Amino acid sequence: MPDFVDQVVLHIKAGDGGNGCASVHREKFKPLGGPDGGNGGRGGDVILEVDGNTATLLEYHRRPHRKADNGKQGHGSNRDGANGGDIIIPVPDGTVVKNADTGEVLIDLIGVGTRYVIAEGGHGGLGNAALASTKRKAPGFALLGEPGDEIDVLLEMKSVADVALVGFPSAGKSSLIAALSAARPKIADYPFTTLVPNLGVVTAGETIFVVADVPGLIPGASEGKGLGHEFLRHVERCNTLVHVIDCATMEPGRDPISDYEAIEAELKAYGKLEDRPRMAVLNKSDVPDARDLTDIVRPMLEERGLRVFSVSAATHDGLKELTYAMGEMVAAARAAVPVAEPTRLVIRPKQLGDTGFSVRMVDERTFQVTGAKPERWIRQTDFTNDEAVGYLADRLERLGVEEELTKAGAKAGAEVIIGSMETGYIFDWQPTLNAEAVHQGPRGSDNRLG
Asked: Among candidates 412, 419, 378, which has minimal Cα distance to 395?
C-alpha cells in the first residue's frame, strides 16, 4: 500500500430522494378524510471542503467510493420523510478537481473552509397531500424521489512541497531528507529505492517548509522513460529545485557535471520548470575522493549561476548552512506569489425569457426535449399509474412543451424523447393536452401519454 498519493479518482454518489406517499386519511366517522401522504426527504449532498489539517489524498486511494445517505419515504398523516445526511470530503488546500471522464477542470479549491457541492442529492417526491388542488382534490398517486448525482472525479494536489530534491537514483536524496527532517524514508544502495516522494518538514529559523525527495530521474524521463512523467509531475508542483549530486559515484561514464547536465536537460525538455530557482548540493563529502572532487566541481557549477553547498548526509556536515539557504529561497519564492484568494463560487442566474427547456427536430418523425425541469419530472413519474402520467402531461403543457413541439413541426403520432437519446423517455405525442381540462373517469384511467 503506498504511503504517498497526490492524485486519485473518487467515485461519488449523492443520495436519492425519498418517494412521496399516496395516502388517504382514515378516521372513524370521517370516511372522506382527504389525502394525507407526506413528501419524501431530499437525498444528501457530497461536499468537498478544503481542510488545513489534510495534506494527502491517501485516504481516498484506500476508499475511493463515497455515497451520501438517501432521503426517507414520506408517510401517511402528513409525515414527511427525513432528509439524507450530507457527507463532507476534506481535501488539501489547492486541490484541483477534474471530471475523470472528460478531463474538464470543475474547480480549483483554494482557501481553508472553501466548499464545493460536487454531487447534489435528489429531490424528494411530493406526497399526494401536496399534489391536491381544486381540480384534483384526491390524487391517487405521489411523485417518486429523484436519483442523486453520480460522478467520477479526479482529485489532484496542486502543490506537493516547497522544495524538490532532484538527481540520479542513489544520489543520496533519501538520506539527505532523513538528515534534514524527521522523515524516515526507505534507504538502500541500489537504483529506484524511492518509488514515490518522501516528504519531510524542515525548520530554518522562522521559515518552515516541506521538502520532497522526488524519485530518481534518468535520461529520457521527459519522454516517459521509466516513471519519468510521474516523477516530473511531482517536481512541477514544487517552487524550488535542489540538485543533489553524488560526488562519490563509481559508475563508469558518470561525474558530477555530467549528472547535473543530464538532469537539467530532462527538466528543460519537460518544460514548465524554467522559472524555478535552483541550487546544487554536492553530497557524500565524508568520502575522501568526493571531498577532493568537490573542490574541482564547485567553481564549475557556480559559473552556471548556482549556489553550491558541500554536505554529508551521513555526518551532517554542512546541513545547517544548506537548511538556511533553502529557507531563504523558499521565503523568496513565497513572497513572489500573490496571496491566493479563497475560491469564489459563481452563481449565474437564468437569462430573461429562458424557458428552461429546448426542443429540437431529430428527423421528420422524431423530436427531442431537453431541460432540467422536464427531465426531472420524468424521473419522478410512476409510469405504472395512469393518473401520475396525466399529471406529468399537465405539467409539460403548462411549461410550454406542447407549444414548442408544434412550432418545431411535430404532428400527432410523432415520437418525442424527453432526455438523452440513449436513456430518455419515449412516447407518441398527441397534441390534445390541456392543463385546464380535468380528466373525467375512474382513478388510474388517465392515459394521455402513450
From this structure: 378
Is 168 annotated in a binding site? The answer is yes
Q: Which helix (H) or strand (E) holds 308?
A: strand 307-310
Q: Are residues 111 and 173 in contact, defined by beta-carbon separation less than 8 angstroms?
A: no
Residue 431 is assigned to a ligand binding site? no
Strands 95-99 and 150-157: antiparallel
Which residues, including other chains, have CB under 8 Å from residue 38's CB and lie 6 or more apart? 20, 21, 23, 74, 75, 76, 77, 78, 79, 80, 81, 127, 129
Closest CA to 256 of 222, 287, 227, 280: 280
Q: Tell me: is residue 412 an annotated ligand-binding position.
A: no
Pairing of strands 278-283, 240-246: parallel
Task: Give the per-residue pLDDT at 196.
Answer: 61
Give the CA radius of gyration of the chain: 32
pLDDT digits (tens, 9 = 90+) for 321-333: 999 999 999 888 8
pLDDT tens, residue by residue, 280-293:
999 888 887 778 88
Mean pLDDT (the chain) is: 82
312 marked as part of a ligand binding site: yes
